[in-house]
């Protein structure tokens, strides 16, 4: 996939994918802009978007590293990197699984719960800002359309070449 500047110049600030399908490009571009804005807001408070998602995933229950990898759609190595940073700030701790010593569980600390609550306020504001130009009916329609697009997209296993790698092998920014 080529990536082009909207302005058509090298170094332009607004970058848009060029998959050959204008609608797919618009969806990818909007998603990228929303993720980038959310990540920038969260980083002001010392969290990345993946770090926030990880804390959120631990808010209800302890989870294994593999579960977190699946929830975040990143490689186990990337989860380890994210956890290392969060653990160094006492936001999460690793603990042994009660019945399977091969499994490491992740637990949200009290400090992590506080940080998550603080970050959630900013994340909600960023989410609201991203869709602020749409009325309630437009949001409902868009939600329905995107749900249909998601269902129609082939599952990841169908897109992964035999013997190839999947989305978890590359380390995403974050």
Any idea what the CATH superfamily is called? Winged helix-like DNA-binding domain superfamily/Winged helix DNA-binding domain
**Helix percentage:** 55-70%
How many separate structural domains? 1
Question: Which value, in Å, is the CA radius of gyration?
Answer: 18 Å
Separate helix tally: 7
Q: Tell me, what is the CATH class?
A: Mainly Alpha
What would you say this structure looks like, in words?
This protein has 174 residues and is mainly alpha-helical. It has one domain (2-150): Arc Repressor Mutant, subunit A. It is built from seven helices and five strands. It has helices at 22-44, 49-58, 65-72, 76-88, 110-130, 136-152, 156-159; strands at residues 2-5, 15-18, 63-64, 92-96, 104-108. The strands form two sheets. Strands 3-5-4 form a three-stranded antiparallel β-sheet. The protein has a two-stranded antiparallel ribbon with strand order 1-2. α1 packs across α5 and α3 (65-72) packs across α4 (76-88). The two termini are 21 Å apart.
């Amino acid at each position: 996939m080529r990536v082009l500047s909207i302005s058509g110049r090298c170094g332009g600030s607004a970058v848009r994918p060029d998959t050959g399908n204008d609608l797919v490009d618009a969806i990818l571009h909007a998603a990228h802009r929303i993720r980038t804005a959310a990540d920038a807001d969260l980083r002001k408070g010392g969290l990345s978007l993946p770090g926030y998602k990880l804390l959120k995933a631990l808010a209800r229950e302890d989870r294994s590293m593999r579960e977190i990898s699946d929830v975040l759609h990143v490689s186990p190595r990337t989860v380890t990197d994210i956890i290392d940073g969060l653990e160094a700030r006492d936001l999460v701790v690793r603990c042994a699984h009660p019945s399977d010593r091969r499994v490491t569980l992740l637990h949200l600390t009290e400090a992590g719960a506080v940080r998550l609550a603080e970050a959630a306020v900013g994340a909600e504001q960023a989410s609201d800002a991203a869709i602020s130009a749409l009325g309630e009916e437009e949001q409902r329609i868009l939600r329905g359309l995107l749900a249909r697009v998601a269902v129609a997209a082939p599952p990841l296993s169908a897109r992964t070449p035999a013997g190839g790698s999947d989305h978890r092998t590359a380390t995403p920014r974050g």
